[in-house]
Amino acid sequence: METKAGISNQNTMLLEETFYVLTKKNCIFKVKLSTGGLHLIKDSDKHFEEQIIPIKDIIGCQCLRSKRKTRKCTCQSLPRSNSLQVVEENSIDLDDTDISAYLYIYAYIFQGTKSSTRKRERTIVTLRFRSFDRYEDNYKEAQRWRCVIKNLIKGENVTLSNISEFSLNHKVKETRRLLVLCNPKSGAGKGKQIFQQKVAPILNEAEIPYDLYMTKHANFAREFVRTANLFQWTGIIVVGGDGIVFEVVNGLFERWDWAEIVKYLPIGVVPGGSGNGLARSIAHHSCEPYMSTPTLPATLAAVRGHVVPMDLVRVETTKQIMFSFLSVGWGLLSDIDIESERLRVLGGTRFTVWSVARLIGLRSYGGKLWYIPAEYSLPESKEIFTPTASMGSNLNLPAEVQLESQGARQRVDSWYSARSKRSAYFSAGGSSYQSTADSGVDHGDVGTSSESPGRLYGPPSQLPCLTTPLGDVWKCISGRFVMVHASYQSHLGEECFFAPEARLNDGRIWMLVVKAGASRTQLLQFMLGLSTGAHATPEKGDIGNFIELIPVSAFRIEPDMTERGYMTVDGEHVDYGPIQAEIFAELGRVMVP
Fold first, then answer.
1. What is the residue range of 244's domain?
2. What is the mean pLDDT of residues 456-460?
3. Within a 10 A sphere around the Cβ of 444, how many other Cβ atoms?
4. Which of 69, 335, 467, 507 is the most buried (most CB within 10 A)?
5. Are residues 164 and 182 in the same domain?
């Protein structure tokens, strides 16, 4: 939460009301709504305190009514809870005798001051309006507050002169509708559970409608994105690991209208896989707490609608062309990634286990590495396509704050309990779940394996053909390598801080080169440093003689084809052989918190 200083004087007060805390007597709160936030002003026993919940931390609000109390059995011996439960306005279970209207305000606010302990905490502020003798009048007042808050969340310019226009319009039109693609088998196989328990409740609180599709086979998401009418949605949310993100990105570039769709449709990433490199990088880019609630930053990004441009990389092998959002690898890290697939049930722990195995059976690979330093940038991709970017409290209130406008009653039950009978698949905004059979998408001409991709579009390459000799601007390193790994994001995984200086749209590829000759002890030190970023600044004379992190704009790897190994693009296995890549700055768009 933000303090009073620097906020209250800068914001225009729009609404004001006096409430009593439901659980305490003689405790009065004056609640004020300004253009910057919700002000909770506590006035009890001559003690005055103020707490502000910023508008940017509020995701939604709903008007509800109390639920009719019923007894299941006349001989019921256990005492029944007196907690007031609430239902929606059109519910058949509403209590006609209660004239109060309840406004539930959902916020996710920062707690803690240290970066290591800072996190967001779910907070519900419940305002009970009962100043009038008729429910209709209390409901009208609650709706007035709701409409102003919803419009402030949307970024509307609400002022004292036009507040009546916003408060009288009880219908707050939601123009967004999200496409959710969920891989139920990603990571440890908890993709469906993550969506039901972590994502859907927040989308419901924000009243954002969505359509959910569960992936049924490899490349389902790629085919869906390539063939569907994507203009019916305003964003794509992917729930899973980096694999499903790879499918969605390349599905977009297999559309003939790719230039329009990548500019129009941002991607949000909810981590549910083993690596989750992009989701972790987005949180790092936004200075948003990620551990220990990794799904929260991405879901908040989806409901807030903030979008920034992101670099993409065009990758070419002898057999295929693809667009990459994370990394290209050859050697140690790629070996660990591919060979640890057999341990997928362990989730992210599989990388640690297989890292030990690969250090014991250490390999090196011969070949040549060519690259263009970042200072010799390629022609700006904007000449081809230019996307646009939209683009700790003193009150110690509990996570669920309950207030009412008159009197003192038992506190309202939580929103989850009030709606527990509701399926997590459906939101109040008219969301839906779809399976393969009823998706409404024609997959008749689309294969079900990675061997039948559609035609790839996207901006053309600015590099020589893969089989063509390179010019003088290219630098070359030849010899034997433990690994060459190029990333355009700060993190390759939740625990892999690969390129500390990398940003989502810095126009650079960060290429880590580890030459053969380092001892296993030195390589273990290097691997341990990946979790903190210490590997990026090694001391010369130790492993620093074998490792180098180079910012580049393009590179080519030419491995010795008498040996065999693994090459990966965004963690996906590609054919072993020559490979080259080039950066296209700000080509994609992603949702950020």
1. 178-305+425-434
2. 90
3. 6
4. 335
5. no
